[in-house]
Amino acid sequence: MGQPYNPNAPVQPVTPPPMPQSMKCNSCGGPLKPGQGLALVVCEYCGAVTTMGAGGAAQVFQKHFMLDNKLSNESALDAGGKWLNKGIFRRKVAETSNLGQVTLRYVPYWIVPTSVVADFQGTKNVGAGAGVGMMAHGDTGAKKAAGAALFALTMAAAAAGSRNQPQHNVQSQPQVVRVRDRIQMQYNIPIVGVRGYTKYQPDDGFQFQLQNKITFDKRATGGVEVMSGDVAEQEAKGQATSLAHKFAEKEAKKRVDNLESIQVYPTTYDGELLHAPVWFMEYDHKGKQMFILLDGSSGSVMDGERPAFSLW
Ligand SMILES: [Zn+2]
Question: What residues have their beta carbon closer than 5 A to ion ligand 1?
Fold first, then answer.
């Protein structure tokens, strides 16, 4: 990604793209109000999206889709509450939180088809003593607990085994296996088209269910606010590239205990623009402000914040 730092590289003058002569929607002729620039302007009359083309000319962007909102206010709150309470250490978070503002908006996302190839190497702990090995290396509390549990199981198995074969010698030496492998994955990475809407950007691998998309139709939004944006597709591709690095690294870490090196080769392709119905819920838990982001089409949580644990 990018070029190596070169202190002698000539400085490129940055000039803003020229504003178009006509500020009318090419689809219906209505006046456009490009409040935040022309990267992505939704016509308030017909819903057509005008983008700044490669040549600097404003044009109607054709690959413009939407997903239907299928959640009522009540079912959205219900889905958010269930997510808050998910996990044994997180009982009654929803019950002990104060709900703040809840908003539903059609938010523009650039859907960037991205293929990732990543070559990685590292080591993996295997064998009966793996749990002990993890403990000895001073890992996190959770890993220690997992290691201890594994160790207990190993001892139980050893005890069971020794009843059947009294003279069997139990080995508990940790073994380290070297792993060299390649990951190949495809994503349709959603990149939020509104600068400053960082909380609307899922960064943990969430993908919209694009098989349910329909061609954008303003009448199908039911009067819910449809947002314009200020992120061009080219910039979205750059963001998708960095997310692809992150996803590949995460995937590699699932396959080794110690990731030594990884080379990621992402390729992004021209995508489409999707207006997705997104529920944004703010809540307060013990004085801390947090949020939940919910896909109104599938009802699943796209991203959010919740306490690590809370038993009461
Ligand atoms: Zn229009």
Answer: 25, 27-28, 30, 43, 45-46, 48
